[in-house]
Design goal:
Elements: H1 4-20, H2 24-38, E1 48-50, H3 62-70, E2 74-80, E3 86-90, E4 97-101, E5 104-107, E6 113-114, E7 118-122, E8 125-126, E9 132-133, H4 139-149, E10 155-159, E11 180-183, E12 186-189
């Protein structure tokens, strides 16, 4: 019998393989749809929103980030500081991006570190109850825990393709569920 960790690893491997198999042109079309559905996000101008730049076969939500910035969001990107920690550095137009760990790029160390109120999060697997599996390093779980210890309750919105959905994600007590998910099929709320 598989442990929860082994079950999660198997689901992660399976669903990331499906995501990787999406042809680049189809991935682009699906990413455009995700960005369009994401435009329905409600927030007040000045809200700090964390996004991400795509790595590997992730959805490319740069058009959505641009749209949210035009609507007054204060944008930031996750930066891997060490094996355990990510911080969220402010993203401003025209600022040079640097390598920031885990294959990502983002604002350099001179950028302001922000505490996001809304996180657009890449993931490996999700289910209809809002449970998610990340990439296995726990960076987002620890970052969310730090935000909550500061008295914040950030909205967590997953970004994925439909092929990453499963019937049920094996959830553990430390796992943090999503408020919503945006895929190429639409914007679904869980909260």
């Amino acid at each position: 019998m598989q442990t929860l960790k082994e079950q999660k690893a198997a689901l992660r491997k399976e669903r990331l393989a499906l995501r990787d198999a999406i042809e680049p042109e189809a991935r682009l079309e699906k990413s455009i749809a995700i960005s369009a559905f994401g435009e329905a996000l409600s927030f007040e101008p000045g809200t700090i929103i964390s996004g991400f730049l795509p790595i590997r076969s992730e959805a490319d939500i740069r058009p959505l980030l641009d749209h949210l910035g035009q609507r007054g969001a204060r944008l930031c990107l996750p930066v891997v500081l060490d094996r355990e920690t990510i911080a969220f550095r402010e993203l401003k137009k025209g600022v040079e991006l640097v390598d920031t760990g885990f294959g990502t790029r983002g604002p350099g160390p001179d950028a302001a570190v922000l505490d996001p109120e809304l996180l657009l999060m890449p993931l490996s697997v999700f289910d209809a109850a809002g449970n998610r599996i990340g990439y296995g390093a726990g960076h987002y779980d620890r970052a969310i825990d730090r935000l909550r210890k500061k008295g914040m309750n950030p909205r967590l919105i997953g970004i994925a393709f439909d092929c990453q959905e499963v019937a049920s994600v094996p959830a553990e007590p430390h796992d943090v569920g999503l408020s919503a998910i945006i895929t190429e099929s639409g914007y679904r709320r869980f909260d």
